[in-house]
Amino acid sequence: MFEALVTLCALATGDAPAACRAVLLPGFASDSSTTCEAALRAAPPDWLAAYSWQPTCAPRPPPTLAFEQIAPGVFVHLGLIAEPDAANGGDVANISFIVGQSSIAVIDAGASRAIGEQVYLAIRAQSPLPVSHLILTHMHPDHVLGAEPLREAGAQVLGHATLAQALSDRRETYTTNFARLIGSQGFLASRIIGPDLGLVGPQTLDLGGRRLHLQPQATAHTATDLTVFDETSGILFSGDLVVDQMTPALDGSLRGWQAVLADLQASEARLVVPGHGGPLLPWPAGGDAMNRYLKVLETDSRAALDQGLGLAAATALIGQSEASHWRLFEQYNRRNATVAYTEMEWD
């Protein structure tokens, strides 16, 4: 099978040299290079107009992103527990795909177009079925910036009803920051795209003999959280509502997160794929560490307020008893403490 590839380059800026890479263009796959190139010339992606390029097609390359089959038809890529940088290319979030009898759904897309392309190749190494859906669990860039090539492969992009506006409001900040963190070569041709459909209530997807239940959640980790439950395997895909090893990031509501987590732990799921770490935890026990951390944020914030501590003094203390239990604690806890303290100040 032949795939369309276009070599694109980012111009040198400052101390950064020019960076080039072969960008994969899903949607033009064919059993001959001639047919593939003709289709690419006839209807290239609109965004390519910003580049100088020549159509080319080559045998489909093997994927470089590793996926583990954790249950029949359920594949998960384990992201690193690390901050995005040029060395890891932003590969820091878990990504999953689920294979039904008639189509495939992907859950989250990674931090760059390059990662999204590798997700597509990993899927094609497992199945020729159409990629019907891409489900984005929330707005954070390490989960959404790889979405475009999966849409080009035919996926309808789904997310919370609030996701489109959240991404629009943060587009410039997210793309600027991740281009700086990952570097021009790793981030080349990456763009934020909004969902094709925002969900205001539950929705069920039928992949052919396999049903996924999508549930937009109240404000918790963020205001854009959405969970996926696979009936067949009994696995809950939580996004960052559940994380393992990596310090949770509070970008929404502490009280809301506690309530949503309690609801999820009372659900019929028996296993969970967290947004980071794992990649597979028992459920509901897999949420116990999260519950403990969130309770510490609540208790410490209340104590700081009762003692009359100001924000700066309080955030230096809140959550510190949890430091030994989580990685990247210093990067996330103080911000979590600020959000928790501020929210509880108005209780």
Automatic annotation (TrEMBL):
Record Pfam families: Lactamase_B (PF00753)
Signal peptide: none
Protein's recorded name: Beta-lactamase domain protein
UniProt-listed InterPro entries: Metallo-B-lactamas, NDM-1-like, RibonucZ/Hydroxyglut_hydro, SoxH-rel_PQQ_2
Top-rank lineage group of the source organism: Bacteria
SMART domains tied to this protein: Lactamase_B
Family: Belongs to the metallo-beta-lactamase superfamily. Class-B beta-lactamase family.
UniProt domain Metallo-beta-lactamase: residue ranges: 92-276
Record-level GO BP terms: antibiotic catabolic process
